[in-house]
């Protein structure tokens, strides 16, 4: 699904940026350009970043419960 129509950024590209190491909306924005033109997509993009980071955190907690609890 297209999140940013101005630059043609998709939800897959945003998730891939996070999987490649981006840890915040700012980093995703710098890598993909999402939200840098008209800004109408910023809320949707931020929500997607939050959900994806949360999913990664939950997956890490299931894989390594002691490591996450100590952090």
Helix fraction, binned, reads 55-70%
The overall pLDDT, averaged over residues, is 91
- The arrangement of helices and strands along the chain is EEHHHH
Q: Please give the oligomerization state of what you see.
A: single chain
- How far is the first residue's CA from the last residue's CA? 34 Å
Parts with pLDDT < 50 across at least 5 consecutive residues: none
Structural class: mainly alpha
Shape, please? elongated
Major sheet: 2 strands, antiparallel
Radius of gyration over C-alpha positions, nearest whole angstrom: 13 Å
Q: How do the strands of the widest beta sheet line up side by side?
A: 1-2
Overall strand count: 2
Strand share of the residues?
A: 5-15%
Figure out the total of helices.
Answer: 4
Question: How would you describe what is shown here?
Answer:
This protein is mainly alpha-helical and 71 residues long. Helix content is 63%, strand content 7%. It contains 4 helices and 2 strands; from the N terminus they run E-E-H-H-H-H. A two-stranded antiparallel ribbon has the order 1-2. Strand 1 and strand 2 form a beta hairpin. Helix 1 crosses helix 2 and helix 1 packs across helix 3. The longest helix is centred in the C-terminal third of the chain and has 22 residues. It starts with a strand and ends with a helix.
What's the topology here?
Elements: E1 2-4, E2 9-10, H1 11-19, H2 25-32, H3 42-63, H4 65-70
Antiparallel strand pairs: 1-2
Helix pairs in contact: 1-2, 1-3
